Amino acid sequence: MKGTGQLLFCIVLLFIARGTIAQPIYAGRYTTIFTAPPANVPTPKTPDAPLTGNGDIGLTFGGEPGELQYYFGKNDFWRAYPVYPGGGIALPGGLRLTIPALKGADYYAEQLPGKGVIHASFKKEAQQVTIDSWVAATHNTVVIEITANKTCTLQPVLWAAKGNTAINTAGTTEKVTWVTRSFENTPLLEWPCHVALAMRVLGNNGSTNKTITLAPGKKTIIAVTIYTSNDRTNWKEAAITEAKALTPAVIEKMYAAHQQWWRNFWDRSSVQVNDSVIEKYYYTSQYLFACASRGNKLAPGIWGPFITKDSTAWGGDYHLNYNYQAPYWAAYSSNHLDLTDNYDQPLLDYMEKGKVHAMELLQVKGIYYPVGIGPKGLCTTRWPLTPEEMLQRYGTRDNTIDSGYKFLGQKINAVFGAGNMLMRFYSTYDAVYAWRIYPYLVACADFWEDYLKLENGRYVIYMDHYGEVMPNLRNNGQWRQLLGDFNSTLSLGLVKMLFKGIIEVSTFLKQDISRQEKWQDIVTRLSPFPVGETGGRQSLRPVERSPAEWLNKPMGLARVSIHGLLLPGGVCGPITDSAFNNILLSDVAHWKDKMQHIGEWGNTLNNGIETCFPGAVRVGYDADEILQQLKDRIAVQSFPNGWITQGGGGIETLSAVPMTINEMLLQSYEGVVRIFPNWNHSKNASFSKLRAYGAFLISSRLQNKRIEFVTILSEKGRACVMENPWPGKAVQLIRNGKKSGQLSGIRFSFPTKENELIVLKGI
After folding, report:
1. What is the 3-state secondary structure (H, E, C) of 337-377?
2. Is 341 in contact with 328 (CB distance < 8 Å)?
3. DSSP 8-state code for residue 172
4. To the nearest whole number, what is the mean pLDDT of the chain?
5. Which whole-number Å values give the CA distances from 694 to 516, 567, 667, 753, in the listed order?
6. In the predicted model, is pLDDT for residue 346 greater than 60?
7. I want to staple 675 with a disulfide (CB 3.0 to 4.6 A). Which of 89, 175, 527, 725 is the partner?
8. Count of Cβ atoms closer than 10 Å to residue 453 Cβ
9. Which residues 6+ apart lie within 8 Å of 652 measured at CB?
10. 207: part of which helix (H) or strand (E)?
């Protein structure tokens, strides 16, 4: 019996480690229902339609029942033109389905995150048509399955977007209808880009691609295969050939692989917080980001692949002063590392240009990046080419600012990009990844070693600005008088993050050890974060001084300073410096003072929901208050598809709810693992396989005001430093099913082995 008991105990531990106990399948619960056609399609920003995708191809389900309109976006289809506007991600095209019998029909659609499917059902009197649409998770194919209860006709029209110097072709090859769109031979275009969309109709009872007869109860399948020249050199032939080879049996296998991919995705982690609103947006946000990003494809821009017109805001590019980085933040702790594999490449590809910018414009080593870039070394943010256009758009004729590139007074963009690299490194301690990013980190360090000034025993930062400084029509092109920020909190925080991080990575790789003395000196003697007095209390200042008067006052912790200090900076917090953290905590407590309406907490209606809410968690603000303010913010500004919207950006908001909840349940960014660190312990909650710094996968459950257990899977065998989840109690340490001593104290450390399963229980 003793052996049997030990076996059962091991099985229970295995279930805990795999997340079976703490991981009900929640994603399938949160179907999003639409009872009216989308109103915000097409749009230059976020669509309000049902959405799905495979991280490369995005499907936006627009139109009305009688004339449905599918928009196909693709993360790697770009007009590689460096001047804004005019370049950036471009719309490949779409598919129009005209069903005369459904004109004026009732509208009903479901976005199914558990399956990666859009299910729609349209009814008009006795006529009903159901349509299931999905983007194959493992193929470059969109599948649309249509069934009618009564005979009716359907006309599909495949189209490629036109204009903006594009070249279009169209044709039919055997049973495949195809269209193409190409950007090439345009002056200043940095590289050509082509896309082909190839459509095959299956099960249509012999009707042509132009007019399909939907027979009662018989499924008709319309499949569209999409390839770009970034996918294949034979992009057009590949699309046509694969579409031609499609059969119902092939699509059935494709769907099985598609479902398996989504099952695997949802199995990687989960949370349960017993709040249906928060959980819905948690899982829907994870779903939408999985639809928008895939590691083996090009990275998504501001709007992901959900493009419904060419003229997207900011060109849909990679904006480096937070928009590009923020969508990934929750993926690290949520254990969705595969969605982040594409992040580094655009930053690495721009390094040679960045070195030229640094030397030619600032006469320093290292890399210096403009505000907006694209893939393959593309700059997307040059000033207009003529003084006349410059005057029309920006109120000044000077289009030679910074040799024609938009740096907007900010030197920190390259280091901002390093924040995500360090988050992933700390989360994995993966040597292959460390070698991949190390040259970039060194180039950033080279820049700041040259650029920093040592004055009166401290390192200071001149002319790196808290916000974007540029000519525009609002200031009548008068902007240079606003230049001159000194010691911005954004700059100080991110530079400190960089040098702390590169010391860790260089030690891990045993590289450049001789440079660490200098790097540590910068960390130690970098100027302190500026504070001042307001209302009888200490409060954060955005800069130490600035020509812009509004920046010289203590404004408190805000989105931009959070980027430097807390996320992605990670150089402040209750463990790092409790006294300074209390100042930040007080600032968050006063966010309510500035509210005029519900939902304005943290000033996140225009920008920053993905920053301010997890930032408030990291400093330890009241969890219940954060959750209520988060729900109020969602209610004020979000779409039926679960996309929380804001004025200044797109897919970055998809990290807001997951990052906020993950940080409430598990923190590790200050080098100490903390279980339910900012959660009301009178409320039950659980999480499974969240990823902590140190390459640990951790699960736990809080039930009846008591943490029942903590399980840790150590991927790399690093020492684990943990705040005692059971204050004042001893802790039983169990390794691979065997009791292995006790731990005690406010905080304790214990060694681990690679792939070792550890369970902690309070005694």
Report:
1. HHHHCCCHHHHHHCHHHHHHHHHHHHCCCCCCCCCEECCCC
2. no
3. E
4. 95
5. 21, 18, 12, 12
6. yes
7. 725
8. 9
9. 302, 322, 323, 326, 327, 610
10. none
User: Higher confidence at residue 608 or residue 11?
Assistant: 608
Q: Which residues contact 740 (CB under 8 A, 6 or more apart)?
A: 733, 734
pLDDT digits (tens, 9 = 90+) for 515-560: 999 999 999 999 999 999 999 999 999 999 999 999 999 999 999 9
DSSP-based three-state secondary structure for 661: helix
- Identify residue 351 by its one-letter amino acid code: M
Q: pLDDT of 700-726, one tens digit each? A: 999 999 999 999 999 999 999 999 999
Do the beta carbons of residue 46 and residue 647 sit within 8 Å?
A: no
User: What percent of the chain stands above pLDDT 70?
Assistant: 96
Provide the terminal-to-terminal Cα distance of the chain, rounded to the nearest Å: 24
**Structural contact between residues 506 and 437, judged by C-beta atoms closer than 8 angstroms:** no
> What gap in Å lies between CA 77 and CA 316, rounded to an integer?
11
The answer to whether the beta carbons of residues 339 and 293 sit under 8 Å apart is: yes
Task: Provide the residue type at 513 as one letter.
Answer: I
In which element (H, E) is residue 6 found?
Answer: helix 2-18
358 pLDDT band, cuts 50/70/90, is very high
- Pairing verdict, β 318-319 and 372-373: antiparallel
DSSP E strands: which ranges in 107-184? 109-112, 117-124, 127-135, 141-148, 152-160, 167-173, 176-183
Name the residue among 57, 63, 94, 60 with its Cα closest to residue 76.
57
User: Interior CA angle at 478 toward 648 and 312, to 5°?
Assistant: 25
Rounded to whole angstroms, how far apart are CA atoms 652 and 610?
Answer: 7
Cis peptide preceding 85, ω within 30 of 0 = yes
pTM of the model: 0.96
Retrieve residue 157's tokens. 């029209």
Specify whether the CB–CB gap between 272 and 686 falls below 8 A.
yes
Six-digit token pair at 129? 């048509």
**Nearest residue to 543 (alpha-carbon basis) of 381, 410, 708, 729:** 410
